[in-house]
Amino acid sequence: MATVQQLMNLEGRVGVVTGGATGLGLQMATALAEAGANVVICSRKLENCEEAAHAIEKLGVKALAYGCDVTKPDQVEALKEATMQKFGRVDALINNAGRAWVAPVEDTPLERWQQVFDLNITAPFLCAQAFGREMIKVKRGKIINIASVAGLVGRDPKSYNSIAYSASKGALVHFTRDLAVKWAVHNIQVNAICPGFFITPINEKMFHQVEDNILRGIPLGRTGGADDLKGLAVLLASDASSYMTGAVIPVDGGAVAW
Fold first, then answer.
1. Is residue 256 part of a domain?
2. pLDDT tens figures, 19-41
3. What is the CATH number of the domain that holds 121?
4. Does residue 73 belong to any structural domain of this protein?
5. pTM across the whole model
6. pLDDT tens for residues 98-109?
7. DSSP letters of the chain?
8. Dist. CA 164–CA 103, nearest whole Å
9. Which residues are catalytic?
10. Model confidence pLDDT, tens digit, residues 120-141
11. Where in the sequence is the domain holding 209, given as residue range(s)?
12. Is residue 247 one of the residues assigned to a domain?
């Protein structure tokens, strides 16, 4: 019987985090590193990845910074090849890269709708497919999709008015469940985290414009903090979650429970 410390230990493991250079991605990448994992940081801006990787290596692990547009199949394949060349393995994939387009439904351009879907659902498919092939070879792996509470319930447009974001995150929730069923035979666990409102550089300005509306919908009365995804990310990337697959877990201060 393993101890809790052994189950949660990620030493020697390799985690890939898309959109891992800033915000929630960096929080989760840091968590994996703090648990002992080597980490691949991927985003479109290589300089941001390099800065994040440098900080992560100060924790005593190895990191790979890689500039990649995860909506492009050839770039995703190159990311996977770079990961395997440097580390020779991949144990966990966190599909975190995402975007939104805020506008009333009636004014949302088709082009923007498609861009949101390309990054929020097509990219997780491409990354899961590429890295999943490596996981299938060794009959083990962890895929963690970062969805949103917006993919679980309708949202008040006074707080956040993005139909493309909500619809794409709802698609990611079901992608998680179905992929979990499809790949259970390969001993690959696929789960989703659904964050509530976390302040990031992208949404900080918007948050201050509608702060009262947002906080009224959160029983705990605050937004997510700098450590609030760390524990769950490590749990889902570790052996402690080996009997969890297809789970969709809100981290939202109680918003969807209200």
1. no
2. 999 999 999 999 999 999 999 99
3. 3.40.50.720
4. yes
5. 0.96
6. 999 989 999 999
7. ---HHHHH--TT-EEEEETTTSHHHHHHHHHHHHTT-EEEEEES-HHHHHHHHHHHHTTTS-EEEEE--TTSHHHHHHHHHHHHHHHS---EEEE-------B-GGG--HHHHHHHHIIIIIHHHHHHHHHHHHHHHHT-EEEEEE--GGGTS---TTT--BHHHHHHHHHHHHHHHHHHHHHGGGTEEEEEEEE--B--TTTHHHHHHSHHHHHHT-TTSS-B-TTTTHHHHHHHHSGGGTT--S-EEEESTTGGG-
8. 9
9. 165
10. 999 999 999 999 999 999 999 9
11. 4-251
12. yes
Q: How many domains does the chain have?
A: 1
Does residue 205 fall inside a structural domain? yes
Longest dimension (CA), the chain: 57
Name 95's Cβ contacts closer than 8 Å, sequence gap at least 6: 18, 123, 124, 127, 128, 143, 144, 145, 146, 172
